[in-house]
Amino acid sequence: MPYLALIRHGQSQWNLDNRFTGWVDVNLTAEGEAQARRSGELLAQSGVDFDRLYTSVQTRAIRTGTLALEAMGQVWLPVVKDWRLNERHYGGLTGLDKKETADKHGEAQVLVWRRSYDIPPPPLAPGGEFDFSKDRRYAGVTAPETESLKDTLDRVLPYWQSTIAPELEAGKNLMIAAHGNSLRAIVKLLFNVPDDQIVAVEIPTGNPLLIDLDGALQVKSAHYLDEARAQAIPKVA
């Protein structure tokens, strides 16, 4: 039966600076690199032989996966990168300091933008510093101007169904190094988490979630590999 390991990227510089990051290509801090290596060490200790790594096209996720593979001694594994595993697009909040944004718009409004399921932040103005339409990674892609969590799920799940799920159904053991919100999409699907509960699900950094699946991709068991830092895992509905 297949295994799936979900790895949230380690701390980025904008995580440290308390800024809304989204699609901005921010690198890992030294702490983030250490978290990625620790993830690889934990995966190596799990005893699972993985067949492939999937990541977004954002540096912090790619480097997290690469550093994990290095720690596992398996940098030779195939790596597949796709924009649909990107972090949620934070629209007009992109690049803003979170505290300053709360001071300007009010904590209640910012909480709605950050934590509601289907209400996105204001759209990103075209032609500005964070206009991703000219980024070569997104050639041929209609880049969003903003995304709610639901919007993020709506782009992740078709990719899951068309690309990742068939690999698991074929018995492959897979790793996904991605972002808090894109990983929420996969957790929502596998654990049947209701819309009003998925926004409260936190995916920790530096602590892979290892999921044991049956042939129909139903969850048999799941646990975080660093048990001392384990988070709550949604119960399968």
Descriptors:
alpha/beta; six-stranded mixed sheet; 6 strands; 237 residues; globular
Helix content: 25-40%
Number of domains: 1
What is the 3D shape? globular
Beta content: 5-15%
Ends distance: 21 Å
Spatial strand sequence of the major β-sheet: 3-2-4-1-5-6
Q: Tell me the radius of gyration.
A: 17 Å
Q: What oligomeric state best describes the polypeptide chains here?
A: single chain
The H/E string reads: EHHEHEHHHEHHEE
Largest sheet geometry: 6 strands, mixed
CATH architecture: 3-Layer(aba) Sandwich
**CATH homology superfamily:** Phosphoglycerate mutase-like
How many extended strands?
A: 6
Give a written overview of the molecule:
Helices cover 38% and strands 12% of the residues. It has 237 residues and is α/β, with parallel strands linked by helices. It has one domain: Rossmann fold. The mean pLDDT is 93.
Q: What topology emerges from the helices and strands here?
A:
Elements lengths: L2 E6 L4 H5 L12 H17 L5 E4 L3 H14 L6 E3 L16 H8 L1 H9 L33 H21 L4 E5 L1 H12 L3 H4 L10 E5 L5 E6 L13
Parallel strand pairs: 1-4, 2-3, 2-4
Antiparallel strand pairs: 1-5, 5-6
Helix pairs in contact: 2-3, 4-5, 6-7
Brief overview:
The protein is built from 8 helices and 6 strands; from the N terminus they run βααβαβαααβααββ. The protein is an alpha/beta fold.
